[in-house]
Amino acid sequence: MTHRPDRRGFDSLEQELVERESQRLYRRRRLLQSPQQPALHCDGRELLGFCSNDYLGLANHPRVVESLQRAASRYGVGGGASHLVIGHSEPHHALEEALAAFTGRERVLLFSSGYMANTGVITALLDKRDAVFEDRLNHASLIDGGLLSGARFKRYLHNDVDSLRQRLNASSVQRKLVVTDGVFSMDGDLAPLPELAQLCQQQGAWLMVDDAHGFGVLGETGGGCAEYFGLGSDQLPVLVGTLGKGFGTAGAFVAGSATLIETLIQQARSYIYTTSMPPAVAAATLESLQLLKEEGWRRTHLAQLIARFRAGALALGLRLMDSTTPIQPILVGDAGQALALSQRLETAGVLVSAIRPPTVPRGTARLRVTLSASHSEQDVDRLLEALAKVTKEQGVGGE
Ligand SMILES: *Cc1c(COP(=O)(O)O)cnc(C)c1O
């Protein structure tokens, strides 16, 4: 970075950047030169990656790639317009119907990203007369949607049903929306959905779950936390999934009743005022949905890798979190230390990202390991060896 005064009067911004850097909170992008897969070509180097959300290894699957190519030949590249004008094409419609069948919901609506789905849903359902109740570790897109809606905004303690009950009891507004991640993105733990669903039913509140990290991974057929806990539309009326993680493509969807979906079509601004996703992406997602349902071995293999990693990391004395999912954070605490560990791992040829505030609370910086069905057992062993080496060098772990 250059620290000379900015001629356009951006000095105060420059100052903030310098401060951020001195607190070791500065973020930098890497340049990926290969597809998303364990063996990465990145910034001119070969690295073994443990930081993608491509949990099932579908992002670069030949059948998914081929479906995209075939659909691009037929439908072109761009969506061309918003869904409500002339951008809603056959592959979008077919994907919505397939996802409705998959989730066992009446209808599904596609969005261009999970961020847009979350902000679109919350702002469409609530206004300033209403209240939204959010787990304090919810994903930023859920927090932003809640704030943008203008509804009264209440945060409850992480996964704490009593804390939520107190806040619901103290609220007299008519519409109450309870919002939670299904699998928490930085911790990997699950929300207690059956208990939350029961409480919401007692209180006449709606439950909305963002299952970005559960679809494809949890449940017998990859139906996510709704399938895992056996929750239907009555208990879990607003179900959000994203397509850029387990599905390996891009975009997001909301599943629920016909009334919910029609309301979103009429009211969700991030649905109405944007170009539809490229139709070929929808076609590719139909193929990845097929693979995700059919190839149960991907989930079985993933579960084996998770068990192998946890056993190995615990043997090294590392501090793991309460997670049974492919998100396996190693708690470090100090942001600088987490960053240094990540850099040492990279020198050893292994890529694991350091997650620091404000993404996670102060003092809880961590290494966020994510596993994929495309990893092998040898890959996990290489990660464990590298962790053993760098934590010893830096004097971390070994409680
Ligand atoms: C990644 C993520 C999103 C955003 O989804 P995109 O499709 O990447 O915009 C939303 N919620 C959670 C919990 C996520 O992890």
TrEMBL record:
Pathway: Cofactor biosynthesis; biotin biosynthesis. Keywords: Acyltransferase, Biotin biosynthesis, Pyridoxal phosphate, Transferase. SUPFAM superfamilies: PLP-dependent transferases. Pyridoxal 5'-phosphate binds at G114, Y115, S185, H213, T242. CDD domains: KBL_like. The keyword Acyltransferase applies. The modification N6-(pyridoxal phosphate)lysine is found at K245. Its cofactor is pyridoxal 5'-phosphate. It catalyses: 6-carboxyhexanoyl-[ACP] + L-alanine + H(+) = (8S)-8-amino-7-oxononanoate + holo-[ACP] + CO2. It is an enzyme of class 2 (transferase). Its EC number is 2.3.1.47. The keyword Calcium does not apply. InterPro entries: Aminotrans_II_pyridoxalP_BS, Aminotransferase_I/II_large, AON_synthase_class-II, AONS_Archaea/Proteobacteria, AONS_Proteobacteria, PyrdxlP-dep_Trfase, PyrdxlP-dep_Trfase_major, PyrdxlP-dep_Trfase_small. Catalyzes the decarboxylative condensation of pimeloyl-[acyl-carrier protein] and L-alanine to produce 8-amino-7-oxononanoate (AON), [acyl-carrier protein], and carbon dioxide. PANTHER family: 8-AMINO-7-OXONONANOATE SYNTHASE, CLASS II AMINOTRANSFERASE/8-AMINO-7-OXONONANOATE SYNTHASE. Homodimer. This is 8-amino-7-oxononanoate synthase. The lineage of its organism: Bacteria, Pseudomonadati, Pseudomonadota, Gammaproteobacteria, Oceanospirillales.
